[in-house]
Amino acid sequence: MKRICAWCKKSMGVVTAKGVVEDAVTHGMCAACAKKLFAEIGGDTESFLNGLGVPVVVVDDRGIIRTANAEALNLLDWESSDLAGYRGGDILRCVNAKLPGGCGNSPNCSGCAVRRAVIETFESGKSSVKTPAMIDRKESGESQETEFVISTEKTAGVVLLRIDEMSQR
User: Fold this and answer.
1) Where are the alpha helices (DSSP H) in the chain?
2) What pLDDT does 20 receive?
3) For FRET with 102, which of 19, 50, 88, 112 sits at 20 to 30 Å CA-CA?
4) pLDDT tens across 49-83, in order?
5) Contacts of 61 by beta carbon, 8 Å cutoff, 6+ apart
6) Nearest alpha carbon to residue 65 among 81, 45, 83
7) Residues 113, 90: contact at Cβ < 8 Å?
8) Is residue 151 assigned to a domain?
9) Contact by Cβ (8 Å): 135, 125
10) Cβ count near 111 (within 10 Å)
11) What is the chain's alpha carbon radius of gyration, rounded to the nearest angstrom?
């Protein structure tokens, strides 16, 4: 599917997604428009993210969460908006994040679709669209399989991780 900048309409290449017709179009934000937008909004990134209307988590190049919008906090049942320093598995409540070494450092982490999507987006600059992921989450003392559908977009030196769907098994 073709990807174009929703702001300036510049072509941003091609994104592959299962079950999506080849000539479909998806939108993102090119680096130049992102830089301009973030310069304009300055320190009010929280308002910008909350205005998106979908759950979004901002991840840096080390896999560390910088922030998340109110929709993501609500969906993940996360009480604190201060996520700085946490890893994805921590805020998703992945059982592997509690193993020695933490999120990203257990043998089970290499197969994590969320982690792979974020890393691939950082390394290649290519977005992922509606990628299925499964995580064993620990909530209220019980482990429960949770299915996610996620999308990623690299912009302004971070990856925006959008949670398109989340359901308990």
Assistant:
1) 31-41, 45-50, 70-75, 88-91, 113-124
2) 63
3) 50
4) 888 889 999 998 888 898 899 999 999 888 766 77
5) 122, 157, 158
6) 83
7) no
8) yes
9) no
10) 10
11) 16
d(CA 37, CA 4): 16
Whether pLDDT at 42 is above 80: no
3-state secondary structure of 101: coil
Q: Map tokens 């049942």 to a residue.
A: 77
Q: What is the pTM of this model?
A: 0.76
Residue that has been written with the tokens 């064993």 in this structure: 136
Dump pLDDT digits (tens) for 99-153.
888 888 888 888 899 999 999 999 988 888 999 999 998 877 788 899 999 999 9
- Domain range for residue 76? 45-168
Two tokens at 104?
């990203």
Q: Number of structural domains, the chain?
A: 1
Structure-token pair, residue 71? 């929709």
Q: Residue 49: CA atoms inside 13 Å, Cβ hemisphere, count?
A: 23
